[in-house]
Amino acid sequence: MHRTQSHQRKAKHLMRKKGFMSSINGVSHLTRRAKRRLYCKLQLWMWRKRREKCRFGILRAKKQACGISSGSCLSVKTHSQKNKSKVVSPLVGCDAGGSEDRGRKNCLLKLCESVSMSKTFIASSSLQNLVTDTNVFAGNATVPTATVPSQKTETLVQLSDVTDPVKHSHTVNPALSIDADARGLTTHFKEPRTSVLAQRLAIDDPSGQLTSVPQDQAANKDDESITSKMKTASSSASQTDASVKVLTKDIHEFLNDFYKIYGSFIPLQKSDVLRHLKRRFNTDFSDRKNVIFTEVTKCRTAIIQRSVPSFRVVYKKHTLTLDDLSTLADQNWLNDQVMNMYGELIMESALHKVHFLNSFFHRQLMTKGYDGVKRWTKQVDLFSKGLLLVPIHLEVHWCLVTADVVKKKICLYDSQGNALLKVARNILKYLMTEAKEKKQTAFESGWALSFDEKSPQQTNENDCGVFVLEYSRCLALEKPLQFSQKDIPKIRKRIYKELCDCKLHEQG
Questions:
Q1: In 3-state terms, what secondary structure has residue 142?
Q2: What does the mean pLDDT of the chain come to?
Q3: Catalytic site includes residue 284
Q4: What is the value of pTM for the model shown?
């Protein structure tokens, strides 16, 4: 008996010395083979628990990183390799008391919890970096990856059908490589084998909710919208080009016709072009003045450079050349041809109730007396008219003398304010002689002379002839003398056009 006990003590001492089953002391009734078998079973069970915990930890980390609350599906594919070395995990902190199985299970649970916590932390941080570094371009999600060779365990994790009802809706297909070594656990990204395109978002619901649209359908819609926009833009551009071409063509036609009628662009005003375009297209082009006037300038330059045949205006016994009409340009002095033909138009417009004497009348009267102008009124009864208009040319200045036959009043209008009553007396002497010659005894006496001091005055030395014609026009048509020096450029252009049109225009 004593020998048997000493043999047992020696066997236990040898087992401790060799280090076998150091983690399961107290199980003395089992054989060495049974103990090793139990040890292997415990290692396998611990490995399975660790794998389940790791799977749960990775799934939870995925949910936290991607913001997934529910509806996720995580499929794990495990490829195991041969383990070249045995993994020995001593059960530290186990309770030796109680039953053997319960103590080992408690120790294994503690170890698995610690392992799962470390894996969860590492996987969560790695997946957070994955989501942060993910680039999405037009519905395509590409995941930057790093490749680390796996030696022990390679796990491919595929996240599919992940839907976030609040933020984005896309499918990401990352691949993970989880390596475990004796010192700890680390998680690495493995290069994805395939590139998964993200689904596009579209707001089709009137409520404004986001609905996922297949990429092909979204691409088709985008292509159609882009095509329609391009068509619209091209059509609008073509319409704009067409409208510009039509507008330019009409401007050229208008200017060509204008040049043929008036022989020059002296009487052309900007308002004439705008008025024509408005009448032609029934549109106000005030907002496009700069474009129109630029085109007008280019067209005028091109037309003027052409060779033009001789231009002239013939009306009754009056003939005007382009040189005569050019006296109306800028601040040129008007010549007698322009004065006399415009006087003819005034008489026509006043229905011959007004008589406009020739601009040479006063000069002839002063040089040859009454006998020099006696025949000038052979076919005209001056005393049957309501108003007589006599333009006076004093070498370098024009003025106007009027005779109101009804009131027997002679008035002088001078745009420089010169009270040349001597000129007015010359006209008075002529009328009295004419009345006596024509046996109009009622007009042989009783005439009065006056000078209109309120008539519009010129501020330069060049526009006296224009003032005389405007005086005559207003008095013949019984319109007030409401114009000034600033209106003269416009009046010059109007007179030019009236002479070419052989009639007075209603608009002043």
A1: strand
A2: 73
A3: no
A4: 0.55
